[in-house]
């Protein structure tokens, strides 16, 4: 997947940010250089069917860090100060009141940001290339025009408001896999449906049969594409449908099989159930397979939790204890897949096999069964510390280990499993993107995007819609949520570092630079402050 950068500020119809899998990644963007690469990921292969996270892992994981759980401001609160509202997928925030490729950030659909000074008069700024520039919080300028307005009652703003992403949730949208669903710019007539869906009559007949079937095997015998599809009516009538244009809706008339869809709501009309996509297209719900939500999350290292610890990936792993004869034996109980346990740091050898002592009294685990995470002995920031400043943040990722640790200086504060590139580490002389490897080295966060739609470079019909909490660190490579799988700790992605949705949201809030309230995307320029370092190794 090639990764064209987001369009220049001021383009009439900006293209969506995209994902990458084939192209040579660009070098990390320096603070004030050319605009950074768009948020991207690497996954040409059709996503595998997701599985539910292990319930035990969900129960064991601690609650999210308090900094993560702040709710989005209410609509009433949003009206207390003057704001500027996005009317497009990209409403650019520029560093000055003039058009530039070096944008600072952008507002997204349904988004708005407070005006600096609190009033229209205080924020209005003379400038070039726009009749009405407004200074926004905490920095930058937005042009009020085709893409943005200061009128909260603008018809486009009012129509978009109920569909804004849920930024207080790990799942800003509802997500599903397409089985070859068309996208309609308006609610289609039966004739328009027949024109876009060549198999419509057969498909609807199969849907009726599948609704009466008793189980997945019976549905599979009718039509395998209907297994996992939610065939229940929404029970909601069609809302008022607004005629959005190209600044809101992507120019795409179909989402091919294996691609993903982000949507905001469902309703019943024209004898079918429909969803409203994130960019205000309409798609038949009977051609979408919703993704189960992974409940996995990592460990905040506080309240007695510390490294070393062990996670368990791929499958359940047996617990061991020392028997009466001094040999180790299975207890009959197991650590559930994606569970974790603290380690004491001590090991025993039973024959040739090392076993690790856990913090569960008398319980051991085979070393080969555990993903062991230990604290780093030194920081990549050594020699760069300023004692008068807050602790510097950095992230360590092990590609083959499948884990991530977040640090403040040398203090580990969070640990979790991640899914790096299915190609492992790069081969000498071969770009990481060509083998779906995750690049190794020292990088920095150079862009943060609340959601971003990722498009394959080898087949631009393949998309992952509105991937959540994207943090670019090396050209097309990023840390980001993955709502389409639950294989944490395993080599899975096209080269990016996949996090569970819950972890992705937590890391997005924790890393520097912070994304200002109301912004949907941020370029990590000097004005944004220092960036979190990302250190990736085997």
From TrEMBL:
<dbReference type="GO" id="GO:0008360">
    <property type="term" value="P:regulation of cell shape"/>
</dbReference>
<feature type="compositionally biased region" description="Low complexity">
    <location>
        <begin position="11"/>
        <end position="75"/>
    </location>
</feature>
<keyword id="KW-0133">Cell shape</keyword>
<dbReference type="InterPro" id="IPR005490">
    <property type="entry name" value="LD_TPept_cat_dom"/>
</dbReference>
<dbReference type="InterPro" id="IPR038063">
    <property type="entry name" value="Transpep_catalytic_dom"/>
</dbReference>
<dbReference type="GO" id="GO:0018104">
    <property type="term" value="P:peptidoglycan-protein cross-linking"/>
</dbReference>
<comment type="similarity">
    <text>Belongs to the YkuD family.</text>
</comment>
<dbReference type="InterPro" id="IPR050979">
    <property type="entry name" value="LD-transpeptidase"/>
</dbReference>
<dbReference type="GO" id="GO:0071555">
    <property type="term" value="P:cell wall organization"/>
</dbReference>
<comment type="pathway">
    <text>Cell wall biogenesis; peptidoglycan biosynthesis.</text>
</comment>
<feature type="domain" description="L,D-TPase catalytic">
    <location>
        <begin position="393"/>
        <end position="535"/>
    </location>
</feature>
<keyword id="KW-0808">Transferase</keyword>
<dbReference type="Pfam" id="PF03734">
    <property type="entry name" value="YkuD"/>
</dbReference>
<feature type="active site" description="Proton donor/acceptor">
    <location>
        <position position="480"/>
    </location>
</feature>
<dbReference type="GO" id="GO:0071972">
    <property type="term" value="F:peptidoglycan L,D-transpeptidase activity"/>
</dbReference>
<keyword id="KW-0961">Cell wall biogenesis/degradation</keyword>
<feature type="region of interest" description="Disordered">
    <location>
        <begin position="1"/>
        <end position="75"/>
    </location>
</feature>
<keyword id="KW-0573">Peptidoglycan synthesis</keyword>
<feature type="active site" description="Nucleophile">
    <location>
        <position position="496"/>
    </location>
</feature>
<dbReference type="GO" id="GO:0005576">
    <property type="term" value="C:extracellular region"/>
</dbReference>
<dbReference type="GO" id="GO:0016740">
    <property type="term" value="F:transferase activity"/>
</dbReference>
<protein>
    <submittedName>
        <fullName>Piccolo protein</fullName>
    </submittedName>
</protein>
């Amino acid at each position: 997947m090639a990764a064209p950068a987001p369009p220049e500020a001021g383009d009439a119809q900006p293209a969506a940010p995209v994902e990458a899998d084939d192209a040579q990644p660009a070098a990390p963007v320096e603070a004030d250089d050319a605009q950074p690469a768009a948020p991207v990921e690497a996954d040409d292969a059709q996503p595998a069917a997701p599985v539910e996270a292990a319930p035990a892992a969900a129960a064991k994981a601690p609650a999210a860090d308090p900094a993560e759980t702040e709710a989005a401001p209410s609509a009433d609160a949003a009206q207390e100060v003057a704001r500027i509202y996005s009317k497009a997928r990209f409403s650019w925030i520029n560093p000055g009141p003039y058009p530039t490729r070096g944008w600072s950030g952008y507002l997204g659909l349904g988004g708005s940001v407070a005006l600096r000074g609190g009033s229209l008069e205080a924020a209005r700024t003379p400038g070039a290339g726009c009749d009405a520039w407004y200074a926004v919080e905490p920095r930058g300028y937005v042009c009020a025009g085709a893409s943005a307005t200061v009128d909260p009652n603008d018809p486009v703003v009012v129509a978009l408001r109920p569909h804004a992403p849920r930024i207080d949730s790990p799942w800003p949208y509802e997500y599903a896999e397409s089985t070859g669903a068309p996208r309609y710019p308006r609610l289609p007539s039966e004739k328009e449906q027949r024109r876009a869906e060549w198999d419509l009559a057969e498909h609807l007949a199969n849907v009726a049969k599948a609704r009466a079937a008793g189980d997945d095997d019976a549905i599979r015998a009718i039509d395998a594409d209907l297994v996992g599809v939610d065939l229940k009516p929404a029970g909601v009538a069609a809302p008022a449908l607004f005629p959005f244009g190209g600044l809101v809706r992507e120019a795409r008339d179909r989402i091919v099989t294996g691609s993903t869809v982000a949507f905001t709501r469902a309703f019943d009309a024209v004898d079918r159930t429909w969803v409203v996509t994130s960019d205000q297209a309409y798609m038949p719900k009977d051609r979408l397979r919703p993704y189960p939500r992974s409940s996995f999350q990592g460990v905040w290292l506080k309240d007695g939790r510390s490294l070393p610890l062990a996670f368990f990936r791929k499958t359940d792993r047996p617990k061991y204890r020392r028997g009466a004869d001094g040999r180790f034996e299975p207890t009959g109980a197991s650590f559930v897949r994606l569970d974790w346990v603290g380690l004491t740091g001590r090991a025993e050898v039973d024959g040739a096999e090392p076993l690790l002592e856990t913090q569960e009294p008398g319980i051991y685990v085979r070393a080969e069964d555990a993903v062991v995470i230990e604290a780093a002995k030194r920081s990549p920031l050594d020699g760069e510390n300023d004692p008068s400043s807050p602790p510097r943040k950095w992230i360590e990722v092990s590609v083959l280990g499948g884990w991530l640790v977040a640090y403040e200086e040398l203090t580990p504060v969070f640990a979790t499993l991640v899914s790096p590139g299915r190609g492992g580490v790069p081969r000498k002389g071969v770009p990481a993107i060509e083998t779906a490897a995750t690049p190794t080295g020292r990088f920095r966060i150079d862009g943060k995007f609340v959601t971003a739609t990722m498009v394959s470079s080898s087949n631009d019909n393949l998309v992952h819609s509105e991937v959540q909490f994207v943090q670019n660190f090396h050209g097309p490579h990023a840390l980001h949520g993955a709502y389409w799988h639950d294989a944490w700790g395993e080599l899975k992605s096209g080269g990016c570092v996949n996090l569970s949705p819950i972890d992705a949201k937590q890391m997005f809030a924790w890393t520097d630079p912070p994304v200002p309230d109301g912004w949907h995307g941020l370029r990590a320029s000097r004005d944004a402050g220092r960036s979190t370092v990302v250190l990736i190794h085997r």
